Amino acid sequence: MTFPTNFLWGGATAANQCEGAWDLDGKGASIPDHMMGGSLHKQREFTKEIDLDKYYPSHSGIDFYHHYKEDIALFAEMGFKVFRLSIAWSRIFPNGDDAEPNEAGLAFYDRVFDECAKHGIEPLVTISHFELPYHLGEKYNGFADRRTIDFYVNFAETIFNRYKNKVKYWLTFNEINFGTLPFGGRSLLGIIDGKDDEQRRYQALHNMFVASARTVKLGHQINPDFQIGCMLAYITMYPLTCAPADVLACQQMNQKLNWFCGDVHVKGEYPFYMENYFTQHGITLERSPEDLKEIKEGTVDFYTFSYYMTTCIAAEAENGDRTGGNLFGGMKNPYLATSEWGWQIDPVGLRYTLNQLYDRYQIPLMVVENGLGAVDEVEADGAIHDEYRIDYLRQHVQEMDKALEDGVDLIGYTSWGCIDLVSGGTGEMAKRYGFIYVDKDDVGAGSLKRSKKDSFDWYKQVIATNGENLASRKEVLQSVE
């Protein structure tokens, strides 16, 4: 096996999906706190007024706020080298534009990071993971207003100074490329007035690029040892056929969704194909020479991404067989299996993606989200036999190993939802990713008891052998028989 000895094995969560305690200790409401949900496969409903008689999944999450010591101890038992988590902006600045931070919120993350240090776990912190304070959406429509750049940089500066000796690895925004799509307007950009068009969306995205670049420069000034990266949802695409029209359609979709944000973050400039797209679609961005200078000077140190599935693109797709995906679907690939949620499973695609990204950017890469969402059954004895999850993860680890053999500089892997948490898209608990089962259902009922799945011991073994032993308990028993 070729995993380096310092490879960062671990898992990933997001504050709005696990913390709960949405209004405790001075925390303000975030945009996710205004999103109802809980039904199987049904997208969450956004409400400007919170009706406490209804269920809002982010209000309680899995109560990591009160269970963090127990949860981090379980991560340590698995051998985590790194734990990716986010800081809830509205826990630090309840409205987002406050003059002073909330000390109780800062103190909470002190305790979390101290607990990680106690167990030898390196935090990987996402500064903004779909958790914009609701007030910033209501008053400014989030990043559609340039003033939000300063609010974000102030937030980043506050946590950089507070945790400069506790956190080394940072990510500026989660899955920033979803800002190119209509449904990214609210959750990512903070545009909540319903007036979401491309002109406004790309202007908001530009403002986020400036905020990210300023943050990178500021972070390096505060602590030169900081490593600050970007994070994209990489939706690997193949042409549905070898017809030139399908190949061209696939290339164009890749440029807009996968490459654009990465090119700005890593290369520090807008790519030619997007400048042409803006011209063709009548999009005129307010971009000062100073903005472009800051973007050029504030490039990231490493590139991270989520990878769950691949999809196919066709020039004419009206009558084709479609499939689902991580906020973005496409045409069905006849050579791939599909998960319960319609996401096509493609481990080899991860190797392809790692090679494609490293060839394009030549900076360290990290897979910070990957996993299988599935319905888990608890046996009468309390056991949870999730061999399907083990099989999914094993195949992806094997392909990461091959990418390392190819020469890719891959430095870490954090599986998504290492402990079960509420779905960001639907708020449901039925779609579980974790190595740790949390007793909670789609309407918020349950004891919140934590239980180990079979995948818990499997991942523990993977980390202990640095990716060498990928056999499951079931396979070991079968070999003995």
Automatic annotation (TrEMBL):
GO biological process: one example: carbohydrate catabolic process
Similarity comment? Belongs to the glycosyl hydrolase 1 family.
* Listed name of the protein: 6-phospho-beta-glucosidase
What the entry lists under PROSITE patterns is as follows:
GLYCOSYL_HYDROL_F1_2
Upper classification of the organism: Bacteria, Bacillati, Bacillota, Bacilli, Lactobacillales
Superkingdom per UniProt: Bacteria
Record's InterPro entries? Answer: GH, GH_1_N_CS, Glyco_hydro_1
Mention one GO molecular function. beta-glucosidase activity
Q: Name one GO cellular component term.
A: cytosol
The protein's UniProt keywords, in alphabetical order, are:
Glycosidase, Hydrolase
